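Re: beginner question about structure tokens

> Can someone show what the tokenized structure looks like for a real chain? I only ever see the sequence side.

Sure, here's an example I had lying around. Input first:
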Amino acid sequence: MTPTPTMAVPTGGRAKRGFTRLAQAPLFGSTVALIIAIIVFSALSPRFLTPANFSLILQQSIVIGILAVAQTLIILTAGIDLSIGAIAILGTIVLAMSSGSAGAVAGLLLTLVVCVAFGALNGALVTLLRLPPFIVTLGAFTAIVAATRLIAGSQTFPVTDPLLTFLGTSFKIGSFVTTYGVIAMLLVYLVVGYALTQTAWGKHVYAVGGNPAAARLSGVKSDRTIFSVYVVAGVIAMIAAWAALGRIPNADPNAYQNANLETITAVVIGGTSLFGGRGGVLGTLIGTLIVGVLRNGLTLAGVDNLYQNIATGILVVVAVAADQFMRRKSSR
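And the corresponding structure tokens:
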């Protein structure tokens, strides 16, 4: 019997397919975008590519970077949280006010209780009453912002306790200066990243967001998983509140007004799908850095803040359009 000759696959075809698979990788687009942004701004400003400036970018990204981890968890379940920034700002006010009378440790514990309580309330409304996460967290955002200003009396509260400002303490790694807040942010990413990829809970989060019906048939307790995600988001909001006081030791009820939208921006640019079930915190970290690099580079180039917002908005639309395109292509 004569053997059937094997048709050789052209080298160019293999290379093309390999590049296509690489381009479809979740982190490919965001990583390329970050590299391009660094190259462009390095050419525009000699001050951009310096250790001091990169340290500044990291420090400016701490609060949004931490909150973006919470937003990632919720978006992975096909939800969204418009209140996460407001919860963190309420946390700064509670922390500053309670620490003055009860001490820093008691203040941190009370802040944790408050942030977790609001996260749990959001989760309960979503899971028990079957309300859309967008509506629940939009209502929570409005109520929390008003409550924060009422509690603060439209005043700011400076903090001086070393424990409250600890995350703003700087130290050197060789010639590179950073802060403990940056370390805290990276630890949050590491812990949540490990939980998402190496635990049953993480697999359930992806399952609930990717295919809720299949998750239920597989025995995943969807409501319990979604509720736990909102509770964890509350814990992360408390860490962000502590980091915010380390960054600027002054609790201001009007601070970080765009935090909710900026966290969504970082998550979407980082490749996490708004439809749930696809993405991760590594992409969110890259997305956070892209936003930080973009704002820092445009500032060094003398671009007005309003134009920076326009550029960021365009980037979000492009990222969502790319996500839609990849979803349609993968479903064929």
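Each token stands for a local structural state, so reading them left to right follows the chain. The beta strands are 157-158, 170-173, 176-179, 250-251.
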